[in-house]
Amino acid sequence: MDWISILAVVTLLLTICFLTDVVLGTRKLALLTALPALSDAISPKVTIIASALNEAETIEPAIHSWLAIDYPALAIIAVNDRSTDNTGAVLDRLAASDTRLKVIHIDTLPDGWLGKSHAMQQAASKAEGDYLLFTDADVVIQPTALKKAMQRMTERKLDHLAVMPDAIISGGLVAMMILDFAITFFSLQRPWRVSDPASRHFVGVGAFNLVRSEAYHDVGMHERIAMHPVDDVMLGKLLKHSGFKQEMLLGSGEVSVAWYTSARAMIRGLEKNTFAYLDYRLSAVLAATTMLLIFGIWPLLALILTSGATWMLNAAIVTLRFTLNLHMARRTAIPYSSLIRAPLVPFVMLFSLWNATAKTIIHRGIYWRGTFYPLSELKRFRL
Q: Torsions phi, psi of 6, nearest 5?
């Protein structure tokens, strides 16, 4: 047996293990929509916190959905973070019609902070209540979602509950990229294990990070991750590794976000956090590259370049990966029609990985929402 055949055998065995772990793991994750709702009589106060920078076109539907949430003790703090469009005016107009909504306007960004983390910290320092729900300015939350999430929080005595949203997309290549992103997220974070105190796995989701206020203050608030581009996941890491209790649910039907509209937009969006997620280590980038080549790209090329038993082994690998894509599409509401573009995704994601890494290194930092953040400063906030 030559080395190409040996590689195919090893890759097939590892693919089987990987697929089994993800499929069985995701089945352990509860659906938020299936949970009971917390009684009004025992509802502790929750403050929703969101930062908005030039979100005038998208924030109003999100705010309307938050104001329609069926929860008796609810407050909302929206931060207009240095917007140059009409975001501030939209927020002020909405706040004038509902006293539950408070608006903070930020004109300048102090040194040592990313804009979003600074905005979240400013809002959290003014928030009241026992729980804080950190979300994004384009996230739509259904009226029953918070009661169900709070029932889980109180029933299981959680300090942090993350909810994975539906991604509202029309389909196409970007849908498959988002699906691949979700598979990578699940395989690395293994969210079905985060509730185990003995596990080092952790999770955080920017669309819905519900945190007990006391736990949030105990870990140092956003100041500990002031210049980390992946603030949502790193907040989860801070909480989990500080001994706080954590869980993740699937928010299908309850929490949704209109994510990237095109493959180009997603590649540009990932420029700010891909290298940060890999801890700014080229060794991690090379490891990720190797995994993409072995598990994603070579099996596809092998269907053209090999024959016989080696071809059959690689065909089995491709089939198993398609099965995993199908399973995850069912769990994340990604259109099945997008699966036809699956063979393109490993190539696009490899480009995205090196595009983000190269730009961060060449520019010695990242550009995010019109602000430049030096790499030397970003590295100081690695966890």
A: -65, -45
Residue 331 pLDDT grade (very low, low, confident, very high; cuts 50, 70, 90): confident
Q: Please, which residues have CB within 8 angstroms of residue 19's CB and are 6 or more apart in sequence?
A: 320, 321, 323, 324
Contact 56, 68 (CB under 8 A): no
DSSP letters of 80-132?
EES-SSSHHHHHHHHHHT-TTEEEEEE----TT--HHHHHHHHHHHH--SSEE
Q: CATH second-level architecture of 31-165+205-259?
A: Alpha-Beta Complex (3.90)
Token match 């384009």: residue?
Answer: 138
pLDDT at 93 > cutoff 90: yes
Count other Cβ atoms within 10 Å, centred on residue 281: 11
* 174 SS3 class: helix
113 φ/ψ angles, rounded to the nearest 5 degrees:
-135, 140
Q: Which pLDDT score is estimated for 261?
A: 86
> Taking Cα atoms as reference points, which of 263, 246, 277, 249 lies closest to residue 356?
277
The pTM of the full predicted model, rounded to 2 decimals, is 0.94
CB 140 within 8 A of CB 132: no
Name the burial class of residue 33, with classes exposed (0-12), middle (13-18) and buried (19+) by CB atoms within 10 angstroms of its CB. Answer: middle
What mean pLDDT, rounded, does the chain reach?
95
CA distance 82 to 49: 16
Q: Once rounded to an integer, what is the mean pLDDT over residues 29-35?
A: 96
Segments making up each domain of the chain, as ranges: 3-25+265-365, 31-165+205-259
DSSP 53: S
Residue 240 confidence (pLDDT): 97
Cα 63 from Cα 158, distance rounded (Å): 26
Strand ranges in the chain using DSSP code E only, listed in sequence order: 46-52, 74-81, 101-106, 131-136, 139-141, 160-164, 166-167, 209-212, 246-250, 255-257, 365-368, 371-374
